[in-house]
Write a structure and sequence with these properties.
The complex is a heterodimer. Chain A has a single domain, classed as Domain of unknown function DUF4426 (Immunoglobulin-like). Chain A is 0% helix and 48% strand. Chain A has a five-stranded antiparallel β-sheet, with no helix packed on it. A four-stranded antiparallel β-sheet of chain A has the order 5-4-8-9, with no helix packed on it. In chain A, strand 6 and strand 7 form a beta hairpin. Chain A is globular. Chain B is an all-alpha fold. Chain B is 38% helix and 2% strand. Chain B has 17 helices and four strands. In chain B, the strands form two sheets. Chain B has a two-stranded antiparallel ribbon. The radius of gyration of chain B is 22 Å and the shape is globular. Classes of the chains: A mainly beta, B mainly alpha. At the A-B interface, strand 7 of A face helix 13 of B.
């Protein structure tokens, strides 16, 4: 399997790009690389420590590329070398629209939210965002 | 005395209070304030359990209390829930490991503030309080009963039968499992009312939140230094957070992996397996909430190798009453607990697990300060008040704390023998710790 990891976008939150994730609202966070754009919004927000939360996600493909039918979401705590104790379930809501449920960041500190999908060529694409909770 | 800036946010007000408190400057930092505030307010309101249709109902609570104190539910008719969960000991038993019909592998957990918990038991094998209440009834080493025995006990004893009728609005039926689960739900309804009282720390926390300088200044300096260490270099806050002082999850502390020589206690790994196989989890047929609204954790919990040897993060309220400590009861005192963290053997931690714990190498002063902080998490006696404080203890809980225990309490000879064995195990552990299993 070909794998191409996109550079992780670790910048602070920026306003959502109107062209992608507009429906998520103005407080959505955005990530972008190689023409792909991803917007996400958490509920509740801000994300609480030790409680389940939901992510609504919008993924937008570069011009001419197809959107994936599935998306994987995970979170890790790099300094502590562990992930979540829960495996999120991701469901497609519409084309390019996903909802991830069952996430929980059980410790305060820096976490990395990771989004992965395969493009039409079978290449694994990855975007990540660093966030601090608690 | 109220602060001068009541309209400002709590954190800012609190920072002003701490910065100007007399007579000594606080060792706490501005960035500690939000975390201090997140340890409260206390007490929180009761949390209803949608999976239990009698949760919060007075008749079920009364029936649950009755069931908790009767030995009739046990196989030999001599052991009650209250035999091991003694009110005067914070609803624990004071023993390193629980003793019912036989000796168990783990320390008896206290029963306060249970409605705030996500997982029950040291391994989190249950996701709800009624399933956790059914477990010891059926465990051969604890009360050793069967579903049939529990149901028959309720049907045959007029007092229990009346309690069932009052709680559930009908006579106990012919389905043994259904009646036994109802018994567990009544037990859960009562236990969920057991709320720990306010503590000196709560008085301090509220004083900070409300800008009450004089009240905040009553919190001892040693406790403030201990709190600063708890939030800072000690990193205790990473797992012990929120009003219960627990994130409700599971971690590996580098404790011995063996329940006894040659037999590993799998901890959380085994707990998740049991949970997923249980008929009584929140995804099962006995959940009274058709929407399964509280089953998110159960539906998404992940079973991973790193969960071997992980045990639940206990809350830190009222530790004074619940010695000994750790899942295996291997620390007789809180000083021993702190020594464990101070001299931690990193080689015992998971090779593939989290990298969080390092030896704290506490100085004698730091140890005393942490002990002072932990002591401030013990509730105030009923009716007491600290200067400037608002101490309140729920009278109903206070009454239950003094309720007489069940007939078959631990006999002095059994307790003495058990303590002797526990000391021997501790000595053996210190002298010759077996190698941890490969991970």
């Amino acid at each position: 399997m070909k794998t191409a990891l996109l550079a992780a976008v670790l910048a602070a939150a920026v306003p959502a790009v109107r062209a992608c994730g507009e429906a998520l609202g103005a407080d959505a966070q955005t990530l972008a690389a190689d023409g792909w754009q991803l917007a996400w919004r958490a509920a509740p927000s801000p994300i609480p420590v030790g409680r389940h939360f939901v992510l609504d996600i919008a993924l937008c493909a570069p011009a001419g590329q197809a959107l994936p039918a599935t998306l994987r979401v995970d979170a890790t705590m790099p300094e502590h070398r562990h992930g979540m104790n829960y495996r999120p379930g991701v469901s497609a809501r519409a084309e390019g629209q996903f909802r991830a449920e069952g996430l929980m960041l059980h410790m305060p500190g820096r976490w990395e939210l990771v989004f992965e999908w395969r493009d039409a060529a079978g290449v694994t694409r990855r975007l990540a965002q660093s966030l601090t909770v608690g | 005395m109220k602060g001068a800036l009541p309209a400002l946010g709590a954190a800012l007000t609190a920072a002003v209070v701490l910065a100007s408190a007399e007579p000594m400057p606080s060792p706490l930092r501005d960035e500690d304030i939000p975390r201090i505030l997140a340890f409260g307010p206390w007490p929180p309101p009761p949390q209803p359990d949608p999976s239990n249709r009698v949760s919060g109902q007075p008749a079920a609570i009364a029936f649950g209390r009755q069931l908790f104190h009767t030995p009739a539910l046990s196989a030999n008719g001599r052991i009650a829930c209250a035999s091991c969960h003694q009110a005067a000991r914070g609803f624990s038993d004071g023993l390193p490991r629980g003793v019912g019909l036989a000796r168990g592998d783990r320390n008896t957990l206290a029963l306060l503030d249970l409605d705030l918990q996500r997982w029950y038991g040291w391994d989190g094998a249950n996701d709800n309080l009624w399933a956790q209440s059914l477990r010891p009834l059926l465990d051969p080493r604890e009360m050793g009963a069967s579903l049939e025995h529990v149901a028959r006990s309720v049907r045959d004893a007029p007092g229990l039968r009346a309690g069932y009728r009052a709680a559930f609005g009908s006579e106990p039926g012919a389905d043994d499992e259904r009646v036994a689960v109802d018994v567990a739900k009544a037990l859960a309804a009562w236990q969920a009312t057991l709320r720990s009282g306010r503590t000196p720390f709560d008085e301090f926390r509220d004083a900070v939140a409300h800008g009450e300088r004089e009240a905040a200044a009553h919190y001892p300096q040693a406790a403030q230094r201990g709190l600063a260490l708890f939030l800072g270099r000690g990193r205790c806050y990473t797992c012990h957070l929120g009003p219960s002082f627990s994130n409700g999850e599971f971690h590996d502390l580098g404790l011995p992996h063996f329940a006894e020589p040659g037999r590993v206690d799998p901890g959380r790994h085994g707990g998740i397996r049991k949970l997923q196989q249980s008929r009584y989890n929140l995804l099962g047929p006995f959940n009274d909430d058709p929407a399964r609204g509280s089953a998110t954790s159960t539906a998404h919990v992940a079973l991973e190798h790193r969960h071997y040897g992980e045990f639940k993060v206990p809350g830190l309220r009222n530790l004074r009453d619940t010695a000994p400590y750790f899942h295996d009861g291997s620390a007789a005192t809180l000083r021993e607990v702190l020594r464990h963290y101070s001299e931690l053997n990193e080689e015992r931690l998971h090779a593939d697990g989290e990298r969080l714990l390092v030896p704290l190498t506490l100085s004698p002063q730091e140890t005393e300060d942490l002990l002072a902080f932990l002591d401030s998490l013990n509730e105030l006696p009923a009716g007491s008040a600290v200067p400037g404080g608002r101490a309140q203890v729920d009278e109903a809980v206070a009454r239950d704390r003094t309720a007489p225990a069940a007939p078959e309490l631990h006999r002095p000879d059994v307790v003495a023998d058990h303590r002797k064995k526990a000391s021997a195990i501790r000595r053996s552990r210190q002298q010759n710790e077996p190698e941890a299993p490969a991970r």
